[in-house]
Design goal:
single chain
Amino acid sequence: MRWIPLLEYARERGELRDDLDVEKAARWLAFVQFSYLALPEMVSSPADLEAELRAFVLPALLTEPRRGS
């Protein structure tokens, strides 16, 4: 699964929550990714998609979600 190396890299850099199961997170991210691909009408614009990802996906994964980056 393509997400695993990315998540492992983030873990090595200390960016992921300590309690995060990388394999489960990779499956969840793939689900989110394919949901948006299968149902593009879920968001009205690229800016809305980015806002949703920053609001919901990043806080689920990161030790300290980045603000304004």
